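so my prof wants the structure for this chain in the tokens format not the other one, which i didnt know existed until like an hour ago. anyway here's the sequence
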Amino acid sequence: MNTMSLREEAVHLTKTTGVLPAIKLKDGRDLLPYAQALYDGGIRVMEVTMTTPGVLDAFRAIKSDFGGKLHLASGTTLSAAAAYAAIQAGVSIIVSPSLDLEVAKVAHTYQVAFYPGAYTAREVLDAMQAGAHIVKIFPAALAGPRYMLNLKMVYPEVNLVPSGGVSIDTAAEYIRCGACAISGARNFVDAEQIAQHGTGWITEQAKHYLALVAEARATAYPLP
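here's what i got, hopefully its the right format
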């Protein structure tokens, strides 16, 4: 019997799968096939940015189809009002590019997970003190994988997820350097590849990243 709360399960699945795909689109479209493709690839937590047209309807539709099998995260959540609307539409994770205390308050009030963005050691500490369950390091590619290692040495208890520029070539190294998961949008939504191969390409990408994370964890040395 699962005794975890919705929030605890969302954080647990983010950490155990190790992959948090993000969908960011400039036009409104049916996102159910995207969700199904990610789920078929083993993904159990999926982010859709609040800048995506029709995002709230998409959350409702995905929640209706998947129930608790697929946790939804609202990305680029920039205000308390947006956070509240996303929660009402069915998300169990609020993601923001930086720490906003009003957004944090809404997440905590409605008992959903809170993943703010940060970059510097000061910003990471601020996020931790505001009750972040996971801190997204953005843009991660500017400093690279070993930046995770430096942050983990200072804050060993923090859960870090690099986002922004993580690739097939660098994902495993981020995990070996202490990240609990990796995130990204272009890794999973490439219009050219999807046009050529269909949403099956998304499924294969998901499987590939999950395998990279699993292998990295199995071969990682203990952090200093």
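also thought this was worth mentioning. The mean pLDDT is 95.
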